Amino acid sequence: MMILNHPTKIPNHTPFDFGEHRFYFGKEILELSDSSSLINDFEALLKKIREDGYLFIRGFHPRTDAEQAAQWTLQNIAQRGGLQPDTKVEDGIIGERNQTFSFFRQTEVAHAKPILDVVDSHRTMQFYEKFLGGPVITFDKRWLRCMAKGGHNHFHYDSVYVGRGTQNRYTMWSALTDIGLENGPLVLCLGSHQHDKLKSTYGATDMDRDLTDAVFSTNPREMVDKFGFTLGTAHFQPGDVIIFGLYMMHSSAPNRSNRYRISIDTRYQLASDEKDDRFFFREDGSWLGNFYNKDVSYKPMTELRHEWGLE
C-alpha cells in the first residue's frame, strides 16, 4: 500500500525567492495539483496530463526507498570530500567547497541498487506499462543531481535535449531528499505544453543536430511577465514525483540551504517506439549523450529568439 506524503499546504501570499526574483503564492505562482488519489485510474491520469501537462504524485516511491537512495548518494559525496567534516552523512551538510555533484556518467553510483530500486522498481515499471499501454524501457542515462548552495538549472523543454525518436516519452523527476521552497524545488511553467509558438520554434530544435543553445531562459520573471505563464511548484518530500512530457517548460530554483538537494530524472517510453540512441548503452558500456560535437560553437538563444519573433 502506498503511504502518501502530506506536507502542509502552502498558504496564499507565501513568498518564494527564485534567484534575484520574488514571487507570491496565489497569483504568480501556484502549488502543484496533487494527483496521488488517481494513482490507479490511468484513464484519469492520461486526461489530467493532457490537460495540465504534468502529474504531481506524492509518495509515488516508498519513502524509505527514496531515503535509502539519498543516503547512498550522500555516502558517495562524503567519499569525495563533499560534506562538512564532523557532521552526519544523512544530514547532507554541504562542505566548504560547495561542490555540486552530477553522477550522470558514474554508473557505479547512479546505477547502484539503492538508486535502481527506486527508478527501475517493479512498481515503477508496472506504472508506466499501464500508463503507456505496453512494455516499456527507460534511458540508461540517469540524471542523478546533488545541488550545492546556489545550484540550479534554467528554463527548458526536454525536447531540445532528449527529443529524438518517439514524442510519446515521459520524464519523471523524483525527489530523494526533503525539498522545501528554500532547497531549490523544481518549477514548472503551467500551460507551456500548449504554447504553440514556443513548441514550433524553440521546441523543434535539437541542440546537438542544430548546434543551438538549449536553455530558453535564465530569468523566471520574464517567464511570468513576458510569456504569461503562472509558475508551479511544491514542498517535495522523499518519494514525491513530477511526470511530464517533452514540452513542459521547467527549471529548478537555486538551493538556498546548507544541505544537498538530491533528485533524479529518468525517462520512460514504450519499448516498441523509436529510441533516442544518445542515451542508451553502446557496446563499450558508455552512451553518447548531449554535447558530443567537439570544437563547435552553439548559436546563442538571444539570436534564435530574435529570429523566432520571441524577443
The percent of residues in helical segments reads 10-25%
Model regions low in confidence, pLDDT < 50 over at least 5 residues: none
Query: From the helix content, strand content and strand pairing, which structural class follows?
Result: alpha+beta
What number is the mean pLDDT? 96
Strand content: 15-25%
Question: Which features would summarize this protein structure in a list?
Answer:
four-stranded mixed β-sheet, Jelly Rolls, 24% helix, single chain, seven-stranded antiparallel β-sheet, 19% strand, alpha+beta, 311 residues, globular
What does this structure look like?
The chain is of the alpha+beta class and 311 residues long. It has a single domain (32-272, 301-307), classed as Jelly Rolls (Sandwich), CATH 2.60.120.620. Helix content is 24%, strand content 19%. The chain is built from ten helices and 13 strands. It has helices at 42-52, 63-79, 107-110, 113-119, 122-132, 159-162, 196-200, 207-210, 220-225, 301-307, and strands at residues 15-18, 21-24, 29-31, 54-57, 101-102, 136-138, 143-147, 169-175, 186-190, 230-233, 241-244, 250-252, 261-270. Strands 4, 5, 6, 7, 8, 11 and 13 form a seven-stranded antiparallel β-sheet that branches. Helix 2 packs antiparallel against helix 4. It is globular. The chain starts with 14 loop residues before the first strand and ends with a helix. The model has no long low-confidence stretch (mean pLDDT 96).
